[in-house]
Amino acid sequence: MTLPPDELRHLRVLRLRPGDRLRVFDGRGQEAEAVLERLDEGGALLRLGEAVQGNRETPQPVTLAVALLKGDKLSDVVRAATELGVARVQLLQTRFSDVPDIGEQKLIRLRRIAAEASKQSRRAVVPEVLAPVPLLQLPLGGQQAFVAHPGSAERLSERLDWSLPVLLVSGPEGGFSDAEVAALTAGGCVGVTLGPRILRAETAPLALLGAIAALGV
Ligand code: SAM
Question: How far are the Cα atoms of 96, 160, 178, 182 from residue 148, in angstroms, in the given order?
Answer without folding.
Answer: 15, 14, 13, 13
